[in-house]
Design a protein that fits this description.
Shape: elongated
Strand content: 5-15%
Order of helices and strands: HHHHHHEEEEH
Largest sheet: 4 strands, antiparallel
Radius of gyration: 17 Å
Structural class: alpha+beta
Length: 152
């Protein structure tokens, strides 16, 4: 997934997100910082959000069922993975991938998982803390191998 694809997905869902949250076009445009006219054009497919606009919508409505069904339970992780080529941070612990994740590999308690919706990968430590994430499996596997070797 890249920025264009992320924007396209949010554009396609913005009206559903607005309706799901029982917001008028006036209120939704106020919340996300657009004119009502621009919001109407986006909802009709005649205009598009910017990267910042798509991130704003996905972040503000991260608990929306529409956002969850589009991106899974980790939309902020996806945003950071798309924004940063090599996103490594120490975010809060994950739930271990019980719903939105497919186990790719596990060794010594460390895991590689793939998100079933966005298809991005992540590496988790023994306590299910996210070590890194990427859309490139080769990159994750390389880091996984380096980590396992360093522990031996």
């Amino acid at each position: 997934m890249d920025k264009k694809e992320f924007i396209k997905l949010v554009n396609a869902k913005i009206k559903l997100i607005r309706i799901e949250n029982d917001l008028s076009q006036d209120k939704m445009s106020e919340i996300i910082g657009l004119s009502k006219k621009t919001l109407v054009e986006i909802e009709k497919g005649r205009s598009t959000l910017t990267w910042a606009g798509a991130v704003c919508v996905a972040t503000l409505f991260e608990h929306s069922e529409i956002i969850q069904m589009t991106f899974g339970d980790a939309v902020n992780e996806i945003i950071k993975t798309v924004a940063f080529t090599h996103y490594t941070n120490s975010p809060p612990k994950t739930l271990g991938g019980k719903v939105w994740w497919r186990q790719i590999r596990e060794l010594n308690g460390y895991k590689i998982q793939q998100n079933v919706l966005s298809q991005h990968y992540r590496m988790l430590d023994k306590e299910n803390g996210r070590i890194c994430s990427s859309f490139e499996l080769d990159e994750i596997e390389k880091r996984f191998t380096e980590l396992i070797k360093s522990l031996e």
